[in-house]
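Notebook entry, structure prediction.
Reason for the run: the old model in the group folder had no record of what sequence produced it. Starting over properly, with the input documented here first.
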Amino acid sequence: MPHAVTKFQIASAQPDVTAAFYAGLFGWRTDANNPMGYREIDTGSDAGIQGGIWPAPPQAASFVQLFIQSDDVEASAKRAQELGARVIVPPAALPEGDRMAVLSDPTGLAFAIWKPRE
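New structure, fully documented this time:
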């Protein structure tokens, strides 16, 4: 399977302010009606990828994170570690059935490995 970038996430210390900014600038709609209160972004376009907004950890600056699809989140996370990545969030099932792990590459860039529910 190719490992496409299928989603983006904006981690923000002020997620409501961030959502309002992008709604005002681009007309993006957000929906937090899910078990984790995650702010799903609908960009209003079929082109490109959709995303979401999540609160950044208190010690972190705001950043954008890419979600890269994988058939096997655990194996991809293990391989990433072998190549020098650091695990931030171990592989886990999300409430809606997706699987995800968050890692930091050897340069410190955070990214997620993601498998949508089947």
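Summary: Helices lie at 15-26, 73-82.
The old model has been moved to the deprecated folder.
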